[in-house]
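Data deposition worksheet. Section B asks for the primary sequence of the deposited chain exactly as it was used as input, without tags or linkers unless they were present during the calculation. Section C holds the resulting structure in token form. Section D is free text for depositor observations; keep each observation to a single sentence. Incomplete worksheets are returned to the depositor.
Section A, Depositor: J.P.
Section B:
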Amino acid sequence: MGNLMSASFAPECNEVKTKYDNCFNEWYSEKFLKGKGAINPCEELYEDYKACLGTALTARGIKNMLDKAREDAPFEVGGRTQEELNEEFNKPEKK
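Section C:
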């Protein structure tokens, strides 16, 4: 049975996603898990895939919506937003 991976959100990115998935899976199973390599040699393929997705998201008008959603509700860090962490970091110490 072959290696079945999910298709990309953007069909035009399927080829580059498949190349990245195959590279990553081979590195992960044959090198990383066997302690023969901690550095992922597939980073360039990943960047190519991210660029393809970025283009597709922009072309479909989705990127602007994602950017706005991230601005309105930023990802949390440990259950707290980056803003909350910054406020805590900048608070004067209690004595």
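Section D:
The first strand starts at residue 76 and ends at 77.
The radius of gyration is 19 Å.
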